[in-house]
Design a protein that fits this description.
The chain has 599 residues and is of the alpha+beta class. It contains 26 helices and 16 strands. It folds into four domains: 73 residues, DNA Primase, Chain A; 202 residues, DNA primase, catalytic core, N-terminal domain (DNA primase DNAg catalytic core, N-terminal domain, Alpha-Beta Complex); 44 residues; 148 residues, DNAb Helicase, Chain A. 49% of the residues lie in helices and 9% in strands.
Length: 599
Amino acid sequence: MSAVVGRRVKLARAGREMKGCCPFHNEKSPSFFVNDDKGFYHCFGCGAHGDVIRFVVEQEGLGFIDAVKSLAQEAGLELPEQTPEARERTAAVVGLHDVTASAAHHFALQLADTPGTAARAYLALRRITGATAEAFGLGFAADSRTRLRVALASHGDAKLIETGLLIQPEDGDGSREPYDRFRGRLMFPIRDPRGRVIGFGGRILGEGQPKYLNSPDTPLFDKGRTLYNLDRAGPVARKSGRLIVVEGYMDVIGLAQAGFADAVAPLGTALTEAQLALMWRLVPEPVLCFDGDAAGQRAGLRAALRALPLLEPGKSLRFATLPPGQDPDDLVRERGAGAFDAVLAAAEPLIDRLWRSETEGADTSTPERRAAVLARLDAHAGEIKHPDLQRFYRQELRDRFYALFRRERTPWVKTPWVKGQAPPAASPGVLRAARPDMAVAMIEQVLVGCLIRPALIDAAFERLAALRLRDQGQAMLLAAMLDAATASPNVDAARLRAFVAGFGADQAADAVLAHFRPGIGNLGFLRADTPEPVAAEQFIKFIDALLADARMGDDIAATNAHFRESMAEADFAAVRRNHRARAELCDKDRVIGIVAETE
């Protein structure tokens, strides 16, 4: 608005508005104000008032259509051609607003009169005041097939049918009379952004289905392109920067009565692209606040998925989760506005809702199931059409995924050791790293505990020397045992056990060995009755698996880091290849928690 007006009037900022000297009359002190948020100008001197089109008409002497064409050209837009179909649609709505307005007035009178007794009792039960009911134009449709038809007879059956207020039975010959669509229901007028009644919603009182009934699609009303209470909530939302989206009429009305005037609701359907566009015209991040039950949470997820292709920088959604079993109306009625404020303050971003939907309760016990979760997260990111936003979403979701399933890796410590010297005294905690993964500690204790069998040291000496353990105490013990074996080639099991006793490791080794079932997986070398040559061969394979896993771990770390930088499909394929190769190296009985590395 100010950009157009500013071509003819010198404007200066005055709070939320712009002001200048009025172009419609001569004045020395500014009394002409322009409000961009509301889209109008007003002069407190001469009373001139209008929107941007009226300003161009008045100032440039153009007709309405020419003014619209001028503004469209300035904005880089093309006006739709006035086709016969467009003219026909325009003609179709002429007079229909009068019909819906008359119907809303009739329903309001019925609510205030004797037929509306049960409806007034229901509103009182829901603690809706008379002032609130009047502000929202609530009404009542009597339980009669002809009450509305008779009351609005002056408009004619054809227009009543066209606005969805009457139903014409399909009997073929037209002999059956049309009848009222809404009967025995509390009525909610639905208005367009200009405040004109375009349709109705009706809630049944007592038993019966459907619980809520909306007007059918008509020349005035398209429920997929309409939000309930948008005419009242829109101006408030522009000022507050917040738009609350709830599920139903009573939620909107209850919140408005509690002071939350910036709430709207879809009309019994999942949020559509058109409704999302309406919301984003008002605020960049509407807050979806659906019921706390399973159905409400599913509705929130459907909205998130529907929004993904439409996301743009600065435009998203947030999700507020209500206490289980409560809707917004219940919450403010039972616990007050402060409780609902707290729910809104805890609203989570769209990406958090996607993440929770795919990871909470998901079975990730196998690599295949984890890969399925990652594939679903990638698919969600792929729905976003904006390239930069898609890349950021994919990177963020993958970073969370890898952080969730990445094993804690404590850097190994290579402890200096002088052959021939006694090992340093070890405290009882020397065998544990600061916070080693349980599986990591188990694997390393098994490895070192096995070395009490001297034949295993001899068979795998070079491989053992190449290992670097994460646990500092186990690394020290391994180095000490290798040194002992070097100093005394004929060392026996008893001498080794006496040697490691100084580390307090003998009991740990016994506990570890006792933990494993004889012959488990590829750890058959732990069995006491396994011949030494066979045990040595199996132990060498075990060490080779550790070394191969370490090398593969380095490759995976490198490809993961590269992929996080590039987010390219080719680099992602390399990541997947490395993970598959690592899985082929090991089986479930020996892979989990292996952390040995090569230098």
